[in-house]
Amino acid sequence: MAARAATAFERSQLWDPQTVSYRVVTEGGATMGSISDRELLEMARKAAMFAYSPYSGFSVGAAILSREGAVFTGCNVENASFGLTVCAERVALFRGVAEGYTEYEVLALWAPEPVWPCGACLQCLAEFAPHIKIIRQGEKDELEEIQLKELLTSAFFLNRR
Question: What is the pTM of this model?
Fold first, then answer.
């Protein structure tokens, strides 16, 4: 991986979003401490460093916090057959699901330019976290947050009989 210049996020001494704090647990279920929105965004930024994005050149990182306090990260993984590309949000979500977590509270996204989840990611989030808070940030420290229901007003749900 090539060296890169420090981002505005890394240089900033002033950035301090809401002092929201979430409980974080270990694999054994013991409380490990707490994590803030800022720390989730930092985890997402670090995850973006592992993105495989040779086609778009646009690296995205995500960190998702489960209701139980576990955090999972993901990055976008592109493919020459573009339809097979997977977004960072779904990588993080699916990692958590693969570990047995099915309810989530917060999704943090970091990209050079702030992005919201695509439609496919929003639909996947609606399955496991219909009330999730989504926060995003880019290199210029612009921080925004929104609720999933504001981005996806009419999610598809299969009527399970």
Answer: 0.80
